[in-house]
Each structure stands twice: as structure tokens, then as C-alpha cells.
Specification:
It contains 11 helices and 17 strands. It is α+β, with helices and mostly antiparallel strands. The radius of gyration is 24 Å and the shape is globular. Keywords: Signal.
Length: about 450
């Protein structure tokens, strides 16, 4: 890849004396700097979580998560296992297909095959802010074959014949996390057939014309989680902002405020060049933001209102950040409902669904268990990482209800069919309902609590 003329960390471009004087005159106070840094950290948090995945998948050729670059699907024709660390809180009911698109030069065309009526699939399209801006699949567009177009914020062309719908993104770079339901190991080949029927091509290829000039090559700054959680978050933020232009009308004033502490599209950031009092104020703002995130996380116990489009989220950046922290790339509520638990595997517990109160799903439901604090699947001898309505051998209660067991030790041979193994310590368990009913979406139906099993 070509090297960018700007470096995010370690290099500083000299500013003209007049510009420097103007900046100095307009510089915010330390208190203002602290407040702006807090706001910017919260705003950018989901973007940096997204960049962590993007860097692995398109910015690190040769890495195990590399998908092949922009415009390439990478399909996983098996469920996730504890060895896969592409993303936190992975869903292992539906094998994933990943792809990233660079929309700077031209739109891309997405083609999907006809999918059997009983098989659920969804292409969730996500922008750099982590807004879900488009859906293709069983719920949104049906299981029939179709051709769609993904266009960036600057595209002004005409829609060619054969395109069912154009989806517009606010950002130049987007990704899809595509899920295809897997109905057991014997179903792998059928899933592969669906995945291989999904195609991506630039618009010029679709209309059989010469491609436009290529966009400049991107030099990806290596992702360092320690930097992303410090004042150096600004370097990553500035890098990503160059792909989000022009700013959304509702954020023009916000971006001007951010610019007063050195946040701007493509601008280099070097903490060592800042006055000590400015850097100290930014550090305090980062700490304030992290404390705000921690407090918000404590009271965020449901996915309702957590994921969606910009219109759904209403520019609630703190909620957007918590969504990325708790479950990056979560579906919008109309597509999937999420809830869950935090428990301790040292104590065997039950989840009891009364008769008629099973999760109300149009497609299917599951509960997947993750280790804490890393939020990956828990390795166990049963190789059972989730449990739900498609789990073979699941036994109903005598009255038609359903009791599940969660814990480190087996509940006994007669109950192992309903056992979700857990580590000998803290865990989280995420419930997912695909195609949730109105009762799930409005809170009328509620997930039952974890209940300790009394010791004998």
C-alpha cells in the first residue's frame, strides 16, 4: 500500500505562524478541554471498537482475521468456537460472512441468491459510526434472489436497471456482518451454498463500463488497545473522520467544538507536542468518559434501544458506545432482541420459562454463554456454547414449560440435555430472539431470572 503523507502518532506538521496564533487565541480553557475530550471519547468509542475489527480484517494482510481486502466476502461455514476472536460476544447459531466496502470511488452492487423459505439469513450493513444503515435478508427483503446497491455519501449517479433498492451510507467505508442459520453439523453444505451465492461487485463492473479513477490507498495505523483507551484515541478518531465527510447536519457544531482540541479529519496527533496542561485536561476528560461508560453499563440490561440506525439512536452517543462495548455489531431491535445475564458458574442456576412464555421468535431463539472479561465463547467438553429452540434433545417440563441449567458442574445425567456449561467463575449469557414479537420489543414479554438451585 502507498504510504500516507500524514502520520497519526509521532509526526507533527508545522503550522504557519498566523494559523498558530489564531489557534492559540481560540484555545479552550483546561476545563473546556476536559469537557470536550470527554464528549469526543464517548462519541468515538464505537468507531474505535469498529476500527479494531476493520484493522484486523482489511488492514492486516496475512493476519488470521484478514478477509482479503475491500470488496471480498470471507465466509465461515461453521459455527464460532472459543478459538475465534474476531469479535466479542459472537453468535454461534449463524455462521458469519464478513465483507468491507470502500465507497469512495463508486458504489458497490450486492447480489443475493434465492434462499429456502425455512432458512433465516440477514445481511446487516454497518457504517463507521456503527449505525445499522441497511438490511437485506429474510425479514427485510425476503428470501428471494435480488440485487441491491450500497452507495456512499458523495455519490450522485443514476440507479441502473435491475437494482431493487439503493442503500445510502453516511460513511465512505462500510461493512456487512452476514448471518446464515445453521441447523446442525449436517447442514454445513447447505449453508455454504447460500454463502457462495452472495456476490459483490463495483458498480462499473455491474454496468460493464470502465471503472472510475481509484481512490487513494489507505495506510491503516496499527491498532493498539492501550492507545485507544488513552489521549491517543484522538489519532485514531482523526484517521476515521476523513471517511465520514461531510459531517451530518446535526453534528456540524459538534465537529467545530472537537476541532478546538485538535480533532479533525486526517489531522495528525502527537501528544508530546501539546502543552502539559492541555494534555492533562484531555487525560482527565478521557477518565471522565470512561467513568460515564462504566456507570451507563451498570444500568444497561437490555438491548431495547441499544442498536439501530442514526434515526433510531437519535444521536445518543453514550448509548452507541455502550452498545459497542456490550455487543459490537448488534442487530436493530426489529431484527433481533437481545437480553441476558451475568452469573457465577460456581453456583448451578436455572432459567425457567413457564408454559406459553418461551421467547417469542418468528425465526428462532438462543442463549449463548461467554467468559468474562474477554467475552468469548467458553470451551467445554460438551462443545455446547449455546442452547435454544434448535438444540437437539432439549426436554420440556411436564407442564409444557422449559427449564435450562447453567453452571460449571453438570446438573446430572437426566438434565444434561438442558445444560449450558459455564466456567468456574463469572460469565455472561446473551439471549437472542430473531424476528422478535411486539411483546418482546415493547417489554411486555420479559426474560426470566437466573435462579440458584438449592444445595442438597
Amino acid at each position: 500500500m502507498n504510504r500516507s503523507p500524514l502520520k497519526l502518532f509521532g509526526w507533527v506538521l508545522a503550522l504557519p505562524l498566523v494559523a498558530s496564533a489564531a489557534l492559540a487565541h481560540a484555545a479552550p480553557t483546561p476545563a473546556e478541554t476536559r469537557a470536550i475530550a470527554k464528549e469526543a471519547y464517548i462519541y468515538s468509542f464505537s468507531m474505535l471498537e469498529n476500527y479494531n475489527t476493520m484493522y484486523k480484517q482489511v488492514g492486516t494482510p496475512g493476519g488470521k482475521e484478514y478477509v482479503g481486502g475491500f470488496g471480498q466476502f470471507r465466509h465461515y461455514a461453521e459455527a464460532y468456537t472459543p478459538d475465534n476472536h474476531d469479535v466479542v460476544t459472537p453468535n454461534n447459531d449463524t455462521p458469519y460472512s464478513w465483507a468491507w466496502l470502500d465507497l469512495r470511488a463508486e458504489p458497490w452492487v450486492v447480489s443475493v441468491p434465492a434462499v429456502a423459505d425455512k432458512r433465516y439469513y440477514v445481511q446487516q450493513w454497518v457504517d463507521l459510526f456503527t449505525y445499522n444503515f441497511a438490511y437485506i435478508g429474510s425479514r427485510a427483503t425476503g428470501n428471494g434472489a435480488g440485487t441491491y446497491m450500497i452507495a456512499g455519501p458523495k455519490w450522485k449517479g443514476k440507479t441502473p436497471p435491475g437494482i431493487k433498492k439503493v442503500f445510502r451510507s453516511e460513511t465512505d467505508i462500510v461493512m456487512t456482518l452476514t448471518r446464515t442459520a445453521l441447523n446442525g453439523p449436517e447442514d454445513i453444505e447447505a449453508v455454504k451454498a447460500v454463502q457462495q451465492g452472495m456476490k459483490l461487485q463495483p458498480l462499473s463492473s455491474y454496468v460493464h463500463k470502465a471503472p472510475p479513477p481509484a481512490a487513494p490507498a489507505i495506510t491503516f495505523p496499527p491498532y493498539d488497545p492501550a492507545k485507544a483507551r488513552s489521549h491517543d484515541f484522538i489519532g485514531y478518531f482523526n484517521f476515521l473522520l476523513q471517511f465520514t465527510q461531510p459531517p451530518h447536519p446535526s453534528e456540524v457544531a459538534l465537529m467545530k467544538r472537537f476541532a478546538s482540541i485538535g480533532i479533525a479529519p486526517g489531522k495528525p496527533f502527537d501528544a508530546a507536542s501539546l502543552p502539559p496542561e492541555t494534555l492533562a485536561a484531555i487525560d482527565l476528560g478521557v477518565k471522565d468518559a470512561q467513568e460515564a461508560l462504566a456507570e451507563k453499563a451498570k444500568v444497561t440490561l437490555s438491548s431495547n434501544g441499544l442498536f439501530g440506525s442514526r434515526a433510531d439512536m437519535k444521536n445518543d452517543y453514550l448509548t452507541r458506545a455502550i452498545a459497542a462495548q456490550k455487543g459490537l455489531y448488534g442487530n436493530s431491535l426489529v431484527e433481533a432482541w437481545y437480553g441476558g445475564y451475568v452469573g457465577d458458574g460456581t453456583q448451578l442456576q436455572t432459567i425457567h420459562f413457564a408454559k406459553g412464555q418461551l421467547p417469542p421468535a418468528r425465526f428462532f431463539w438462543s442463549i449463548t454463554l461467554y467468559t468474562l472479561t474477554d467475552r468469548f465463547l467458553y470451551a467445554n467438553d460438551l462443545k455446547r456454547y449455546s442452547i435454544g429452540d434448535r438444540t437437539k434433545g432439549l426436554k420440556r417440563d411436564a407442564d409444557g414449560g422449559l427449564t435450562l441449567y447453567v453452571g460449571h458442574k453438570s446438573p446430572g445425567p437426566d438434565k444434561e440435555s438442558n445444560w449450558l456449561p459455564a466456567p468456574d467463575g463469572k460469565y455472561s449469557a446473551v439471549a437472542r430472539i430473531y424476528g422478535p414479537s411486539k411483546a418482546a420489543m415493547d417489554g411486555t414479554w420479559k426474560l426470566p431470572p437466573l435462579t440458584p438451585v438449592a444445595s442438597k
